[in-house]
Design a protein that fits this description.
Layout: H1 2-7, H2 9-28, H3 35-60, H4 68-82, H5 87-113, H6 119-137, H7 147-154, E1 156-157, E2 160-161, H8 162-179, H9 183-192, H10 194-199, H11 204-230, H12 238-251, H13 263-282, H14 290-318
Antiparallel strand pairs: 1-2
Helix pairs in contact: 2-13, 3-8, 3-11, 3-12, 3-13, 4-5, 4-6, 4-11, 4-12, 5-6, 5-11, 7-11, 9-11, 12-13, 12-14, 13-14
Length: 320
C-alpha cells in the first residue's frame, strides 16, 4: 500500500482534493445529495473527463494539443447530423463520427512527426481548420439526436449515473491498453526520452501517430457525448474544452514534460475543475465574478504544469 501511494502520490492527493470539494458542493447545493444532483455533476464531469483523456495522450508523448476542443466541436456537429433514425443508422453514424475524430488526430500526428512542426503550432493551426469546418457545417447550434439513446446514456441506473459507468469502462479499457500491451509502456518511454526510446529500437514515429490517433478517438467520444447531453451540435464549444483539458491533466498529476501520469489522474483533474465551477455557481458569488475565479484556477494549474517542465529541464542541465 505504501509503495502504491508513493508511485501514485499525485493522483492520490488529487483524489482527496476531489472528495473534499465534492463534499463542499453537496453541502451548499439546494437539493443536497440526490441522484439528480449527482447525475448532473457526473454528466458535466464526463464531458471534460473525456476531453482530458484526449489531451493526456498527446501530453504523454511530450506534446500539447490546442485542437482538442475543435475536434470535440467538429465531431459534435457531425453527430448532430447522423445520430438519429433507426438503430442501424445511429450505429453507422457513431462509427463515422469516431472515424472523423481519428482522422483529425492522425492529421495532427502526421504534421508533427513528418512535417517536424512543433505540436503547439500544428494543433493551433489545425484547430482553426477543424473549428472552421464545424462552423461551415452548422453556423448556429442545431440538429437532432435520438432522444431515446440520449436518455439511456445521460440518466441513472439504480442510482448510479450512466455517465460515471461510461467513464469507468473507458478508464478500465485504457488501463489494459497502457499497462498490459506493448504499446502502452512504449508510449511512456517515448514521452520520457524520445532519444532513448529510439536507441532501444522503438518505432517512435509510429508510436506518436498512435498517441495522436488515440487522442482524436477519445475526443470524438467526447463530441458524441456532448451531443447526447445537449441533443444538438454546437460549433462554438471548442475554447472551454481546450483550456480546461490542459488544466485538468496538470491537476491530475500528468507531467507536461511527458512520460508521467495516467488517464485516471486526468479524469480526476477534470472532475476537480467541474466541481470548483459548480461551487462558484452555488456559493453566492456575483455572476460576473465567477469567470474570474475559474480563470484564476486555470491559470494556476497551467502555471504549475509549466513550472514542472522547467524543473525537469533544470535537472537535465546539471548532468550536461
Amino acid at each position: 500500500m505504501t509503495t502504491w501511494l508513493r508511485r501514485n502520490a499525485k493522483e492520490a492527493i488529487a483524489a482527496l482534493a476531489l472528495v473534499v470539494l465534492f463534499a463542499c458542493y453537496i453541502a451548499i447545493h439546494p437539493r443536497g445529495f440526490s441522484t439528480y444532483v449527482v447525475t448532473i455533476w457526473s454528466n458535466q464531469g464526463a464531458l471534460l473527463g473525456l476531453a482530458a483523456i484526449a489531451q493526456f495522450f498527446v501530453v504523454l508523448v511530450k506534446g500539447i494539443d490546442l485542437s482538442v476542443g475543435s475536434i470535440i466541436a467538429l465531431t459534435n456537429v457531425v453527430a448532430s447530423f447522423l445520430l438519429n433514425g433507426s438503430p442501424a443508422s445511429i450505429a453507422l453514424g457513431t462509427v463515422v463520427v469516431l472515424v472523423v475524430g481519428v482522422a483529425c488526430g492522425l492529421l495532427n500526428g502526421v504534421v508533427v512527426v513528418y512535417g517536424r512542426v512543433q505540436p503547439i503550432v500544428t494543433t493551433l493551426a489545425t484547430g482553426g481548420v477543424f473549428g472552421g469546418i464545424a462552423l461551415l457545417l452548422r453556423p448556429t447550434p442545431g440538429g437532432s439526436v435520438d432522444e431515446t439513446v440520449s436518455d439511456a446514456l445521460t440518466y441513472a441506473v439504480g442510482g448510479i449515473p450512466v455517465s460515471a459507468i461510461i467513464l469507468v469502462v473507458v478508464l478500465l479499457a485504457l488501463q489494459v491498453f497502457l499497462r498490459w500491451t506493448a504499446v502502452g509502456p512504449a508510449l511512456y518511454g517515448v514521452g520520457s526520452s524520445e532519444q532513448s526510446a529510439y536507441m532501444t529500437g522503438l518505432r517512435v514515429n509510429r508510436l506518436k501517430l498512435i498517441a495522436y490517433g488515440s487522442s482524436g478517438f477519445v475526443a470524438a467520444l467526447a463530441g458524441i457525448y456532448v451531443s447526447m447531453v445537449t441533443l444538438t451540435g454546437d460549433p462554438n464549444i471548442a475554447p472551454s474544452y481546450t483550456l480546461n483539458s490542459i488544466a485538468a491533466v496538470v491537476l491530475g498529476g500528468v507531467a507536461l514534460s511527458g512520460g508521467v501520469g495516467s488517464p485516471v489522474g486526468a479524469v480526476i483533474g477534470a472532475l476537480i475543475l467541474k466541481t470548483i465551477s459548480s461551487l462558484t455557481f452555488f456559493s453566492g458569488l456575483p455572476p460576473l465574478a465567477q469567470p474570474f475565479f475559474e480563470g484564476l484556477i486555470l491559470a494556476i494549474a497551467i502555471a504549475l504544469g509549466a513550472l514542472g517542465v522547467f524543473r525537469v529541464r533544470s535537472r537535465l542541465e546539471l548532468y550536461r
